[in-house]
Design goal:
The structure holds 2 protein chains of 2 kinds. Chain A is an all-alpha fold. Helices cover 67% and strands 0% of the residues of chain A. Chain A contains 17 helices and no strands. The two termini of chain A are 28 Å apart. Chain B has 2 domains: 201 residues, Sandwich (Immunoglobulin-like), CATH 2.60.40; 119 residues, Orthogonal Bundle (Cytochrome Bc1 Complex, Chain D, domain 2), CATH 1.10.760.10. The longest helix of chain B has 33 residues. The chains are: A mainly alpha, B alpha+beta. Chains A and B meet through helix 4, helix 9, helix 10, helix 11 and helix 12 of A and helix 1, helix 2, helix 3, strand 7 and strand 9 of B.
Chain lengths: 553, 357
């Protein structure tokens, strides 16, 4: 069996008599809750639902691309499928994935607070998310939308006959949901840290989410305004983007990417935050270069706002502005490199074990390194001309978003599953799932780099036969990947009933959240803790476990 | 021999015949792009090997069985500086390298042959100077620098020729250009790479690179008989442009002969170069940039002339070097008023707005 069984904590562990899960019963106690942990669970259920839909759509895309002509579905249907895949995965899965579930659950625990600063706004943000999700789903059910997730004008404003405004409304609402989440995090981190919890004692998870929240608050309103302008131009023919009405077609690109490039950092920074915790815990060693990792998150958030034009290098922008944005993009790559090296060095002289979260974290490091370095290809002006708008882009951002963020999300879910539910996931099968996911991912997306350099354009329902071989590989990989994602969806619910009881601190981790019972009480801490040591202080933990008398709720 | 399914067999044969890692190099840019690409691949592989080695070696050496007690290390400023500055230096090298290539692709040499391409849902319309019109095909001679001037008449499209390693967005209402010089005769893919609606994946065509002799033969055979400028002249007369832009001193519109690429002073005091974009814009929205000395009386032609027509007019005005033929096309009443004002040419000052060529 796995190593965790032998850990001292777990042998005698019992489920606590009272926890946030059994404090109250009934549907209303969940739907009207102000408890950040319950809201996190609500989020987790809803984003899993949308992940399944987005994943099925991805499967349909890969199935269509198995053969060169558009034979499984009409081009029109294909366009709707990939648009919906993008919209759901970006706005309804990736953006809220780690922050709204794991972040929501953990930020108050990690800073030593009883809840987020604004519990009702937190609940409101979930309702906004669900409202947004309903709009997006109704756009899909009513007949779909075929703008792509980027809503490019004037295509979206004048040339399509589909449910653009409905889908845009959905994203508008989901956007406010993430603004509220960000607001809550920032206020909580500033105002609700427990005594002794200085900024540089915060876990890196909190730093990552703080940086993310800045982007959410400053970037998302721009997206909201842009979508309103699209809706106004579409419904009332107000000329904002349409050149025949005196609008500027490039204005939309500027506004959209002003949000949507920082948004990719919304999607990756929380993932990095998870990886810092996981790597440290399973190496039993403090994160190498704490301040460098913390400030690199903030640097990414700040520089991330100054690079949006790199999506427009071939769109007739001034060549000198392209120079500036290329340079800024090179700069924003550096903090990510710093993080990668610091994580690798954290392993040095550690005492490493290989539980599932650690396997996902290794997967993250490898895939994110590829994803990040291929970003340099695209930041390099002359190379971007050939690579942009091809499958190279698709491969690049899937390496970052799926290989990076989804791996990190799964790492985080497995890592904190014992804390959230009080029970362990089954270790052997989950390790298998992690390996399957990794292999499936490589087979799916690596061929797409080659396709991209060959020049295969993205968003093609039909393609010339020269490209078929690599597409067959990619589709084959997608089916492996599908199995890898299906397994956790089966064994995690199973473990809710049959999983071993976890105990307070099955990983022997140092974070405040591991020093309380699993699952935690509604009010988190019986007494507000006093932080008297730095984050990742394993010596403090060793002393504590030696002298502590174990009490269970 | 075990039985191999025919489908699998066909697939294997197909694979062996068609497997390629990078597209043919068929332009002067392509080898430069590929060199940059392989350098970037080299950087990626090196970086990946470095990180994977660190992770794997540490993971094996410091696994719990071998190394039960972790050694707590705070960090190292020296190491942080190392892995900040070295990647930064490498990235800056690629920044400069990429910028040089970018400026090469998007700045055509002045002696380039210009081809107009109009994107629309879902086809590429190609207009050669000599009046050859093509759809979803582009015939070009090898060894001649070519500038493609792109515009879209509806949504964003993107003009991509992977074998040349070039790509440029076709934007509604705005000219963009891309330059290449083909090196190898052959037939190459032409794609639209910007998602443009239902039949986006059908907006593909072929680029035919021909030897100069073949190209001349093709051009002679396929011309519509009227060059773009000739079409433009016809349009100029039929839209009645000649009534005001007659070139006479007292005419209501400025003299257009030799106006192309000169600097024009506007009523608000600013100046603008009369390039293709300006000429197109003043046809569609004349009141926005009126030359000094003229009243904003010209009506808008928005929605009345197609992008192809605008290209014809732009080409006509670019090549216009005398007003002789314009005056020939004036009707009698216009002619008499034109002549009457010609008499007074000495008394009226030259139009302020139009700089002497």
């Amino acid at each position: 069996m796995s190593t965790i069984v032998s850990l001292p904590d777990q042998a005698t562990a019992k489920l606590p008599a009272k926890s946030y899960l059994n404090q109250e019963y009934g549907l209303m106690s969940w739907l009207l809750t102000g408890d950040h942990k319950r809201i996190a669970i609500l989020y987790m259920i809803s984003i899993s639902f949308f992940f399944v839909i987005g994943g099925v759509l991805a499967g349909l895309i890969r199935l269509e691309l198995l053969t060169p002509p558009s034979d499984l579905m009409a081009t029109d249907t294909y366009n709707k499928v990939f648009s919906m895949h993008g919209i759901i995965m970006v706005f309804l899965f990736l953006v809220p994935s780690v922050p709204a579930t794991i972040g929501n659950f953990l930020i108050p625990l990690m800073v030593g607070a009883r809840d987020l600063a604004f519990p009702k706004i937190n609940l409101l943000s979930w309702y906004l998310y669900v409202g947004g999700g309903i709009f997006v789903l109704s756009a899909m059910v009513l007949g779909g939308v075929d703008t792509g997730w980027t809503f490019t004008t004037p295509l979206s404003t004048h040339y399509l006959n589909t449910h653009v405004v409905t889908a845009a409304m959905g994203i508008f609402l989901a956007g406010f949901s993430s603004i509220f989440t960000g607001l809550n995090f920032i206020v909580t981190v500033h105002r609700m840290r427990c005594p002794g919890m200085t900024w540089f004692r915060l876990p890196l998870f909190v730093w990552g989410h703080y940086a993310t929240s800045i982007i959410m608050i400053l970037g998302t309103p721009v997206l909201a305004i842009t979508l309103v302008l699209v809706a106004l131009e579409r419904t009332m023919s107000i000329g904002v983007f349409d050149p025949t009405k005196g609008g500027d077609p490039l204005l939309f690109q500027h506004l959209f990417w002003f949000y949507s490039h920082p948004a990719v950092y919304i999607m990756i920074l929380p993932g990095m935050a998870v990886i810092s915790e996981v790597i440290s815990t399973f190496s039993r060693k403090r994160v190498f270069g704490y301040t460098a990792v913390a400030f690199s998150s903030v640097a990414i958030a700040v520089f991330g706002f100054l690079v949006w034009e790199h999506h427009m290098f071939i769109m007739g922008v001034s060549q000198y502005s392209a120079l500036v944005f290329s340079l800024m993009t090179m700069l924003v790559a550096v903090p990510s490199a710093i993080k990668i090296f610091n994580w690798s060095m954290t392993l040095y002289k550690g005492s490493i074990t290989f539980e599932t979260p650690m396997l996902y974290a290794f997967g993250f490091i490898g895939l994110f390194t590829i994803g990040g370095l291929t970003g340099i290809f695209l930041a390099t002006l002359g190379m971007d001309i050939h690579l942009t708008e091809t499958y190279f882009i698709v491969a690049h951002f899937h390496f970052v978003m799926v290989g990076g963020m989804l791996m990190a999300y799964l790492a985080g879910v497995h890592f904190w599953w014992p804390k959230m539910t009080g029970r362990m996931y089954p270790e052997a099968i989950s390790k298998t799932a992690a390996v399957i996911t990794f292999i499936g991912f490589i087979v799916t997306f690596f061929p797409q780099f080659l396709l991209g350099y060959l020049g295969m354009p993205r968003r093609y329902a039909a393609y010339p036969a020269d490209f078929q071989v690599l597409n067959v590989f990619s589709t084959a990989g997608a089916s492996i990947l599908g199995i890898g994602y299906m397994l956790p969806m089966l064994y995690l619910p199973w473990s809710l009933i049959y999983g071993q009881i976890a105990g307070n601190n099955p990983w022997q981790a140092t974070g405040l959240e591991w020093q309380i019972q699993s699952p935690p009480l509604t009010e988190n801490f019986v007494e507000i803790p006093i932080m008297d040591h730095e984050a990742y202080d394993y010596e403090w933990l060793a002393n504590k476990t030696q002298h502590e008398v174990q009490t269970v709720g | 021999m075990s039985h191999i399914s025919p489908v699998l067999w066909e697939f294997l044969v197909h694979w062996l015949k068609n497997f390629a890692i990078f597209p043919p190099e068929a332009s002067t840019i392509a080898p430069y792009a590929d060199a940059l690409y392989f350098a970037l691949v080299g950087m990626t592989v090196t970086g990946l090997i470095l990180v994977m080695t660190m992770v794997l070696v540490f993971a094996i050496r410091y696994r719990q069985e071998r190394h039960p007690e972790a050694v707590q290390i705070e960090g190292s400023t020296l190491l942080e500086a190392t892995w900040t500055l070295i990647p930064l230096g490498i990235f800056l090298v690629f920044f400069v390298w990429g910028a040089l290539l970018y400026f090469r692709v998007f700045n055509a040499p002045p002696n380039s042959m210009n081809v107009y391409v109009v994107g629309k849902q879902w086809m590429w319309k190609v207009e050669h100077q000599g009046g050859q019109h093509e759809i979803n095909a582009l015939h070009i001679p090898e060894g001649v620098p070519i500038q493609v001037t792109l515009i879209s008449q509806d949504v964003f499209h993107s003009f991509s020729i992977p074998a040349f390693r070039v790509k440029r967005e076709a934007i509604p209402g705005r000219y963009t250009t891309v330059y290449f010089q083909a090196t190898t005769p052959g037939k190459y893919h032409l794609f639209c790479t910007q998602y443009c609606g239902t039949n986006h994946s059908g907006m593909i065509g072929w680029v035919y690179v021909m030897t100069p002799a073949d190209y001349r033969a093709w051009a002679a055979e396929n011309t519509s008989g009227a060059s773009l400028a000739q079409n433009g002249e016809r349009l100029f007369a039929s839209m009645g442009c000649n009534a005001c832009h007659s070139g006479n001193a007292s005419a209501r519109g400025p003299n257009l002969a030799n106006v192309y690429n000169t600097r024009i002073r506007l009523t608000d005091g600013s100046t603008v170069v009369a390039n293709e974009a300006y000429i197109r814009e003043t046809i569609l929205n004349p009141s926005t940039q009126v030359p000094a000395g003229y009243a904003p009386i010209m009506p808008t032609y928005q929605g009345q002339i197609s992008e192809d027509g605008l290209i014809d007019l732009v080409e006509y005005i670019k090549t216009l070097d005398s007003n002789y033929r314009i005056q020939q096309t004036l009707n009698k009443s216009e002619l008499s008023s034109a002549q009457a004002s010609t008499v007074g040419v000495g008394k009226t000052p030259l139009p302020q707005g139009v700089a002497k060529p």
